[in-house]
Amino acid sequence: MQKIPTWIPVVALALRDGHGRWLMHRRPAGKHHAGLWEFPGGKVENGENPSQALCREIEEELGYRLENDALQPAGFAQERTSDSSTQIVILLYTLVWDGSAVSPLEGGQVGWFRPEEIDMLDKPPLDVALARGLFEKALH
Fold first, then answer.
1. Consecutive 10-residue runs of the chain (140 residues): their mean pLDDT?
2. Listed residue (59, 11, 34, 56) closest to 109, CA to CA
3. Are 27 and 108 in contact (CB under 8 A)?
4. What pTM does this model have?
5. Is residue 87 within 8 Å of residue 81, measured between CB atoms?
6. Strands 41-43 vs 72-78: parallel, antiparallel or unpaired
7. 3-class DSSP state for residue 99?
8. DSSP secondary structure code for residue 133 in this structure
9. Burial of 49 (0-12, 13-18, 19+ CB in 10 A)
10. Around Cβ 72, how many Cβ atoms within 10 Å?
11. Buried-state track 7-37, b at ≥16 Cβ within 10 A, e below 16
């Protein structure tokens, strides 16, 4: 019997401030990819659709409440894996920041960066791909 590949859906938020800067989250010590900068988000749990999962994750991680209807799909990135392994696929959404407080509740830190600054940050491979796709779209 052929093994059917599985995938793990993950969601992430590209939050922009209206002045050309985007929010990035630095992973806390003790977590996978610790010390690297990423678009905040997390796994989609059973019974959730992607936008519901993103609203939950951002509130848990940053104490920031999202409006589900305001989220705009912006792209995705996926791991390159062998046909038999579980693949991570990150779905990226954008939103304009409303000025409410954003604070890293689970550790790490947050910062606002321009695209050229984000390009210089150490990021996990999938966040490199997400940033490239997001900012290439913005330039065209």
1. 76 96 93 91 96 97 94 93 80 96 92 97 96 78
2. 34
3. yes
4. 0.91
5. yes
6. unpaired
7. coil
8. H
9. exposed
10. 10
11. eebbbbbbbbeeeebbbbbbbeeeeeeeebb
